[in-house]
């Protein structure tokens, strides 16, 4: 199953015409580990679909340290939520997107996607479902950060990305979990001794 079909299988079905037009707005691009895909200097809104690899959104804290907000695994949509909600413009991107591994990513101009939303009712429904899913993931992330202990957050991450420790460095995992690398090391040691 190709990436677009696999992605769309999670949502209400599209007509064959809509599916074809949706597919046509994407192009495949390969990025090396460490590449910045989009961010503060982006001049046009983009809509990304992760085919292979792990990416993240990050902000810089007051000391200039990168803090990972979100991890994007294969079949994830990656876009500035602010851009998607407010319509894209030059100053709308409020976060950087970065490759944590080598990646293959399908990219579409957000304007092209939003034109399809206006043109096709079923793609409009897809748009709503993508926004709902993004909102639900954001609420889940906030809930986990505010209610779960660090060990529970780590175990949840391992549940959704079992091999993540073989793919990205510990300090990046720790950043995503909002803990220090030393805390993560202690958690891993404690869990492995059980």
From TrEMBL:
<dbReference type="Pfam" id="PF00027">
    <property type="entry name" value="cNMP_binding"/>
</dbReference>
<dbReference type="InterPro" id="IPR018490">
    <property type="entry name" value="cNMP-bd_dom_sf"/>
</dbReference>
<protein>
    <submittedName>
        <fullName>Crp/Fnr family transcriptional regulator</fullName>
    </submittedName>
</protein>
<dbReference type="InterPro" id="IPR014710">
    <property type="entry name" value="RmlC-like_jellyroll"/>
</dbReference>
<dbReference type="InterPro" id="IPR000595">
    <property type="entry name" value="cNMP-bd_dom"/>
</dbReference>
<feature type="domain" description="Cyclic nucleotide-binding">
    <location>
        <begin position="10"/>
        <end position="134"/>
    </location>
</feature>
């Amino acid at each position: 199953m190709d990436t677009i079909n696999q992605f769309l299988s999670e949502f209400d079905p599209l007509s064959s015409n809509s599916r074809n037009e949706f597919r046509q707005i994407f192009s495949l691009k390969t990025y090396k580990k460490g590449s910045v895909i989009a961010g503060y200097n982006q001049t046009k809104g983009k809509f990304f679909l992760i085919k292979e690899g792990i990416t993240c959104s990050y902000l810089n804290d007051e000391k200039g340290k990168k803090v990972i907000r979100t991890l994007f695994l294969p079949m994830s949509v990656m876009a500035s939520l602010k851009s998607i909600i407010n319509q894209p413009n030059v100053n709308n991107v409020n976060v950087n997107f970065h490759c944590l591994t080598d990646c293959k990513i399908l990219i579409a101009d957000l304007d092209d996607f939003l034109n399809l939303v206006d043109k096709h009712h079923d793609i409009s429904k897809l748009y709503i479902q993508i926004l709902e899913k993004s909102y639900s993931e954001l609420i889940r992330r906030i809930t986990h950060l505010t209610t779960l202990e660090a060990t529970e957050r780590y175990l949840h991450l391992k549940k959704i990305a079992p091999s993540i420790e073989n793919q990205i460095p510990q300090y990046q995992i720790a950043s995503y979990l909002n803990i220090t690398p030393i805390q993560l090391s202690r958690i891993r040691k404690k869990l492995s001794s059980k």
